[in-house]
Structures are given as structure tokens and as C-alpha cells.
Design brief:
By secondary structure, the chain is α/β, with parallel strands linked by helices. It is built from twelve helices and twelve strands. Helix 8 crosses helix 10. It starts with a strand and ends with a helix. The structure holds nicotinamide-adenine-dinucleotide and thymidine-5'-diphosphate. The site of nicotinamide-adenine-dinucleotide has 30 residues, from helix 1, helix 4, strand 5 and strand 7.
Amino acid sequence: MIFEKNILITGGAGFIGSHVVRLFVTKYPSYRIVNVDDLTYAGNLENLKDIENNTNYIFVKANICDTQAIEHVMAEYQIDTIIHLAAESHVDRSITDPLAFVNTNIVGTANLLINAKKAWLNDMTGKLFYHVSTDEVYGSLGETGFFTETTAYDPRSPYSASKAASDHLVMSFFHTYHLPVIISNCSNNYGPNHFPEKLIPLSINNIIQKKPLPIYGKGENVRDWLYVIDHAHAIDIIVHQGKIGETYNIGGHNEWKNIDLIRLLCKLMDEKLGNAPDTSLQLITFVKDRAGHDLRYAIDASKIQHSLGWTPSVTFEEGLSKTIDWYLANTTWLQHVTSGDYLTYYKSHYENV
Ligand code: NAD
Ligand code: TYD
């Protein structure tokens, strides 16, 4: 069968990647979607059970740092578009093991760029290397202001530094080799299939388990939250209408102090679980702050809004409610990902909680 597009999605078994894979596989039956993922602790093929047998979907287990494997995928499936999401993504893990972030996020991205350049050398027409990045590359804001596409990079954690380095590599391939690239920098995502090491799914899981809710410092840090399916739709629009060589900021216009967010989560979960009011609030536990904890992230998403017509589709309360419903309906998924290695991670990271 001849496909209209042959798209390589890296990291498609992870949180955001699985939503992007599902959207593309179901919305575009004429595209072939090749998901390359090394299935680290964060990758989970259970996320894609509903589409794994679709005829336009292929899974390849490979590390993005593996030159031969990537070269093979590019040739075998005549890849013309890459949507690159594979990464080590958790700030706390980057503090304990920075080298893993350097390897996957920097070396892995370089390997993909080199192989894309090699495969597309003779004809770059219709090709796209789309790099999915984070707003954390811009550093930390004070109480006012927003990140725009021209904000200077100022990464402050090994995670954000490795993502910043990968963004710079991507732009260097655009300027040096004319590789057709686009980058997007998105704010914090939340939604179904989010691995419970991040604030929202960890807290949902702990409320279900009646375990303490660890809040770093005083809970004053601010994040701008976006529903993951809205991010997937933004990625779809950028793949089809984005301008080569450009960067797009994606955000939810939805800033929350961590403590206020957790209070809202407790209220919604108590209602859904039939608990007496304020039951889950009792679980809130302030713990030692994260080293180098960025105070505030907030995205100015006016460029993507005005040039490509994208805006978030759900309010935070709606998105959070859908997210909680998904976790309550998928306790088997939650049990699978919170057994084994997760317990070791949890114990070492939250030793006193
Ligand atoms: P995730 O940790 O849930 O998933 C990462 C996926 O990449 C996993 O499936 C994992 O198995 C795979 N992977 C990791 N190392 C690999 C390697 N060396 N080779 C092949 N596969 C590998 O991450 P996520 O939250 O879905 O984030 C996806 C992308 O979006 C990342 O690039 C991240 O920086 C970016 N991003 C995330 C957020 C967020 O809030 N989660 C916000 C903005 C941008
Ligand atoms: P997280 O979900 O790890 O995303 P990021 O660090 O990429 O923004 O954290 C979101 C916020 O929640 C951040 O300010 C750190 C804080 N946080 C806690 O207070 N407790 C926790 O257990 C975790 C994981 C995060």
C-alpha cells in the first residue's frame, strides 16, 4: 500500500506520544505511523492497546541513540516526517541522573537529526523534522510576564538544559544543512496515561491510596497546565500548517500555584469518591523543596493562536475532571505502572513521606 505520508513518531508509548500516535493513526488512515520507542520505565504499550492492530500503525522497539536502528527505520518505511517526542522527561530524575538526560535528549536528538539529513539529502521537499520541546528551556519567571518565542533560553535543571541543547541542535541543522525543522515549546501537560511520578497523576494515585500528598516547599510554585489532547491537536496543526524554521509556544492560559491545584484536585476527588468534604486535604504534606526549583512558568501562546488558529478546547476543571475519571476507570493500568521499579523510585525520592 502507498501511504500519503510516512511519519516516524519517537516516544509514542509515553504520555504525550501515545495521544499523538492515537490522533494520527485514527484521523489519518492514509498515513503510515511508525512508533519508535525504547520502552523505558515511562513507555507503556498498554497506552496504545486500542489502536495497536490498525493497519497504518507499526511499533519498533529501538533506542533513538542507536544509529543503525534509526537508519533502518528511515529507509525501510521511507520516512518523510519525524515527530520527535522521545525523551527523559522528569526534572527530579534529572537531578539524580543527569547523564541519562544528556544521552537521550541530546545524543538521541543529534542521532535523529543526522539520520534525517542523510535520508533526505537529495530531496528535502515535503520533509519535516518536528521537535517537541518544553517551556522549561526559558528558565523561571518572576510573578509577572510570559515566555514568548523570542525569550532568551535560560535552562536551570539538567532536564531543561538537555532539552535546550536539543532545541539548539535542531535549529543548527536548519541553518547549516537546510533541514526542514519546526520546534514547539509547550507548558505542563496533564491528562490520561500520565506516569504517576509527575504532580497531578502522583496526587491522584495517592488520594486513591489514601497516601500523603507531597508538596515541595510551600506549594507556591506556579505552572501553566494544558490538557494533553489539546497539545496533540496543536501538534497536528503544526505538522500540517506550521512554517519551516519557526518555533511555536503552546500553553493553556491556565496558571495554578501547586497548592491551589492540589486543593482543587482534593475537592473534585472527594466528590467523585463520595468522601466527606475535606477528607483528602488532610493528606497534604509539605516536604523538602526541589533543588533549583523554578518558581513560575507561563506561556504567551498568541503566535500559534493568531497564525495557526489553535486554542485550548477544555477548561482546567473539565480537563481535570476527565483525567480523574480516566484514572478511576483504569485502576489496572495504574496498578501495573506503580508496581516494581516505581516502588523503588518512590521510596528513594520520598523517603520521609
Ligand atoms: P514520557 O516520559 O511520558 O515519555 C517518554 C517516552 O520516550 C517513553 O515512551 C519512553 O519509553 C521513550 N524514550 C525515552 N528514552 C528513549 C530512548 N532513548 N529511545 C527511545 N525511546 C525513549 O514523556 P512525555 O511527558 O510524554 O513527554 C514527551 C515529550 O514532550 C518530551 O520530549 C518532553 O520533553 C516534551 N514535553 C513534555 C511536557 C509534559 O508536561 N509532560 C511538556 C512539554 C514538553
Ligand atoms: P512536575 O509534575 O514534576 O512537572 P515540572 O517539574 O516539569 O513542572 O511538577 C509540577 C510542580 O509540582 C513543580 O513545581 C514541582 C511540584 N511537585 C511537588 O510539589 N510534589 C511532587 O511530588 C512533584 C512530583 C512535583
